[in-house]
Design goal:
Helix content is 40%, strand content 16%. It has 484 residues and is α+β, with helices and mostly antiparallel strands.
Length: 484
């Protein structure tokens, strides 16, 4: 995430805030200590850095010259305790108010900016970059542009942090590429106005998000950084071979019951390793993930659709036969979801490797045959050839594809899928109706498990490093016992 053009980052304001160790493996302590020493040095250099004409460039230069040191455990967690000083929300503010807001900051950190649709010029709005780690959940910063309860307030609930930590371990056992490693979970000693405890996630920063190096803004220096990085992850491989390995990782993971639900340019990396593992679904056993199709119902059919509730007894073929139903349009499916991840990676690779041409379907579709042969892949491959998704258009990847579905094709190929979800989407002004191969919603049982685990791993007010190491060992046992 480091070493790109300085305009790929935003310099955010931060200040110390006491944290306690929550889940900390012993083997993470050296890197945690080195990154704590970086924060300590950065805080001492704050007056000079904050007064420089280009703060972003000054922080980059500071990091290049910095040499990590080993701190005591007590000092390590003292220095790792940081939080954003927030943002000012008024369109105009007095000079006095501006100076008061700036004075709260005791150090400046960089965070990533994104240059891909639909998140152009936004970025990592609750993160900060340390020496070679990224911290998540430190509070909202200048790149936060949304207002909603899950992310915009800038923190990270302990449930989500725990889910990401454990699911990263589960996924590592079953997938061809491991997720980006989470080194430790901390939690703030004093809660803010939120009742639910808030955590800090410290994860490896040796990668680049696709959104950072999107062709919308990718300098030759950026492209060279990515090429160097990929050569270390995939030594001796050509760009086409690398893309195929990444595509195979996504398809193979699906065959093992692992799916990342939030696939966007900012949630995918150039080397294929997942981040934000709390957004993953992982089946208890290694088996093919349920297949689904989502279609869009018109408001003209409101009298029928507004009463529609999830019902495994309603099959897709019967639904499409309902009298008076306007022909629905296509939204997305599981195979489009996987294909989108490959297409987004290929889009970025076109800028990183300008002399290369990537035929996404020629790479992707044979992998469906290899890893998902038991699904009778041909109808699903035909679905990809016929239809484009709405997300592809939003992501600037729009290609040919019809909107209205072919009822006969859908009834013949996917007629046995069960109705599992139906709701009115205000942004689309249409009904989103989902049919799946699995009648029951496995996520309900999945969430129950995590609620039980959350109680067992709940942060304690009187936390200790010994307790944090103990919880990390317990997590390892749980991870090893979860998947076979």
């Amino acid at each position: 995430m480091w070493n790109l053009d300085y305009k790929k980052y935003e310099a955010i304001h931060a200040a110390p805030k006491k944290v306690l160790p929550w889940i900390v493996p012993k083997e993470s302590m050296n890197r945690l200590s080195e990154n704590a020493s970086f924060l300590k040095a950065l805080r001492k250099a704050h007056p000079k850095i904050d007064g420089s004409p280009n703060v972003r460039l000054a922080i980059q230069e500071f990091r290049k010259k910095f040499r990590p040191k080993r701190l005591s455990d007590t000092e390590t967690f003292k220095e790792l305790g940081i939080a954003s000083t927030g943002i000012y929300g008024d369109s105009f503010m007095t000079l006095k108010s501006y100076k008061s807001w700036r004075s709260k900051a005791k150090l400046r950190l960089l965070t990533e900016r994104f240059f891909s649709p639909p998140a152009n010029f936004y970025g990592s709005s609750r993160h900060g970059l340390l020496y070679d780690l990224q911290v998540k959940g430190m509070g909202r910063n200048l790149l936060c542009t949304q207002e909603e309860v899950f992310h915009a307030w800038g923190g990270h609930f302990v449930k989500d942090a725990l889910m990401g930590y454990l699911q990263g371990g589960f996924a590592k056992q079953r997938t061809l590429l491991p997720p980006i490693e989470t080194l430790a979970l901390l939690h703030y000693a004093e809660p803010s106005e939120k009742i639910i405890p808030e955590s800090l996630v410290l994860r490896d920063a040796h990668t680049f998000r696709l959104a950072q190096v999107h062709p919308n803004f990718c300098t030759e220096g950026d492209a060279q950084e990515v090429r160097t990085h990929l050569s270390k992850i995939y030594p001796g491989a050509t760009p086409g071979e690398i893309l195929k390995k990444i595509a195979e990782h996504y398809v193979h993971a699906f065959s093992q019951g692992v799916l990342h639900r939030s696939l966007t340019f900012d949630n995918l990396t150039v080397d294929g390793r997942w981040i934000d593992t709390e957004s993953m679904d992982i089946l208890p056993k290694a088996q093919i993930y349920p297949q689904w199709i989502s279609i869009l119902g018109s408001k003209e059919d409101s009298a029928l659709l507004k009463k529609l509730k999830p019902n495994p007894g309603i099959l897709l073929r019967d639904f499409l036969n309902r009298p008076g139903l306007t022909t629905p349009s296509f939204l997305t499916s599981w195979i489009h979801h996987l294909q989108m991840a490959v297409r987004m990676t290929a889009k970025v690779y076109e800028g990183v490797f300008p002399s290369e041409k990537f035929q996404t379907n020629a790479i992707f579709l044979p992998l469906i045959e290899t890893h998902l042969k038991s699904l009778n892949p041909e109808p699903w491959k035909e679905l990809v050839r016929r239809h484009e998704t709405l997300n592809a258009r939003v992501m600037g990847l729009s290609g040919p594809g019809q909107l209205e579905i072919d009822r006969v094709f859908f009834q013949t190929a996917f007629g046995d899928l069960h109705l599992t979800d139906s709701f009115f989407d205000a942004s689309l002004q249409k009904y989103v109706i989902t049919f799946s191969s699995q009648p029951e919603d496995f996520r309900v049982a999945h969430d129950r498990k995590f609620k039980k685990w959350e109680v067992a791993f709940r942060p304690e007010k009187k936390a200790s490093l010994a307790r944090a190491h103990e919880l990390a060992e317990t997590a390892k046992d749980l991870i090893l016992g979860y998947s076979t």
